[in-house]
Specification:
The complex is a heterodimer of chains A (about 80) and B (about 240). With about 80 residues, chain A is α+β, with helices and mostly antiparallel strands. Chain A contains four helices and three strands. Classes of the chains: A alpha+beta (about 80), B mainly alpha (about 240).
């Protein structure tokens, strides 16, 4: 699940909580826990703001996250060639 | 044996993630409902322009000419400001429930925008001066709009939308070029060229909004069919 979140974030500049909910189809609590874990390891950055009176949370991958995910992706690709 | 199984699983995971990335990209690039706001804006601007021009042609006093010119210039700037600044903000509301994704965009260079404005306005001006016929003015204006939208959509990551709009506009341009009857044909320039062009643009936007929205729903369904992704329990590792 966390790999999937990272894969979505690598191709986008910024993604919000609802978008991840729509695409991944998990519960809010479940998604929040996965995101907390990714944030605590410094792989993603969380931006919280208010749009009018409604809180809005969006996420983007950090440079470290981008680099680590790239390395991981390359390694997996080499391990499992087509 | 175990290792072969592992490699096979890794490979299928990799393929699934790559496919998901492609689908998410297409899904994000095919959000078209914002175009409906653009259609509304075109309709309002056209009605206002026609009313002002009609007013001008009936009682052409210097005071009225000045006022109408001022209003036209104001409308152009307000229209541009609404299209660039306000519409993107409000079109997000259509997808509030599904969430927002911002893709890595590149800016359309100024030279491309200037080239487009010249290519779009020149045939209309030439037609107003009765140098080229309305049919060719409409064809050239629609074709330049189609090419610019396609180019800009690639830069601004709206490729699906840009492609459909380009195809519909080029189709309209081709039909006009081969002599298909245009709305208000034979009336004065305001109707036969300006209003006809606005109708074509609004129609192309409307068709694009509907077609791309249907495509968007298909892609979303495909994404939903791919679930579940990896390990869904939050306290377990992915591998």
């Amino acid at each position: 699940m966390r790999l999937t979140i990272l894969k979505i974030l690598t191709s986008a500049k910024e993604v919000d909580f609802n978008f991840l909910l729509t695409t991944l189809g998990v519960t809010k609590g479940n998604l929040a826990t996965h995101i907390n874990k990714l944030e605590s390891t410094g792989l993603i950055e969380v931006k919280k703001e208010f749009r009018g009176k409604i809180p809005h949370t969006s996420y983007k991958i950090t440079r470290t996250g981008q680099r680590q995910f790239q390395n991981y992706w390359e390694n997996i690709k080499n391990l499992a060639p087509q | 044996m175990e290792m072969a199984k592992d490699i096979k699983k890794q490979r299928s995971d990799l393929e699934r993630l790559s496919r998901l990335e492609r689908l998410v990209d297409r899904y994000a690039q095919s959000r078209s409902l914002g175009l409906l706001l653009f259609v509304g804006l075109i309709v309002v601007a056209t009605v206002l322009a026609v009313v002002l021009m009609e007013l001008l042609s009936r009682k052409p006093t210097w005071w009225l000419i000045g006022m109408v010119m001022l209003l036209m210039v104001g409308m152009s700037f307000v229209g541009l400001w609404l299209t660039i600044k306000v519409l993107p903000k409000y079109e997000r509301r259509f997808y509030k429930k599904e969430g927002q994704i911002e893709l890595k965009q590149k800016k359309v260079p100024i030279w491309a925008f200037v080239a487009y404005v010249v290519a779009f306005l020149a045939p209309i001006a030439l037609n107003a001066a009765e140098i080229i016929p309305t049919r060719w003015a409409l064809t050239l204006a629609l074709a330049s709009l189609a090419v610019f939208v396609f180019y800009a959509s690639g830069k601004e990551k709206n490729r699906v939308l840009g492609l459909v709009f380009c195809v519909v506009s080029l189709l309209e341009a081709a039909l006009t070029a081969v002599g298909a009857p245009t709305p208000f044909a034979g009336n004065d320039w305001l109707y036969s060229c300006f209003v006809a062009l606005m109708i074509y643009i609004a129609l192309a936007s409307l068709v694009t909004a509907v077609v791309v929205h249907i495509y968007n729903r298909v892609i979303l369904r495909k994404i939903k069919e791919m679930r579940p992704f990896g390990e869904c329990e939050a306290n377990k590792s992915d591998s």
